[in-house]
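check this:
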Amino acid sequence: MFVLMTLFACSDKGEELQEPSVQHYEANSLITLEESGMEFEEGYWVRRTMNPSENSIFEEFVSSIDGTLITYTYRVDIEAKTFEIDFSDEKYSGNGTFVGEGLDWSSWSSTSTHRDGNYVRSDDSMEAQEIIQSSKIGYSSADSVDWRLEEELLPITQEEYEQALSLFEE
């Protein structure tokens, strides 16, 4: 009982501390190179952890080709409806805005800039049945379009996610 009272006393504005929630996805991407029109596909297995007590979202993208891991951490300012993005490779920095309440977003937009001046503009939306649609445009430091990406994240179970990742275990 004391532990519960302590948790309630330590929570922000007297609200209950909320546990993180985890969603799993299969991501399918179509990338089009602007200059040549060449297209190629990429696939990922995604775990998305929303942590209301820290106002953060942590995403893990695992390549379905070779198991390469890329992570993104969204540090969210709930009141301002903005966020900053930390990338695992530390070559990019990003920020954006969202529509929604707390970490329950219906859409979000961001710009991420590489150290060399190239940048990516991204528009994402949460569709029916928790499907995430993403459109990204990659620009050169001279502001010309280099590539376009259309991506769909389809919800899967934790079991399906773990089974997919087991293919990369030695």
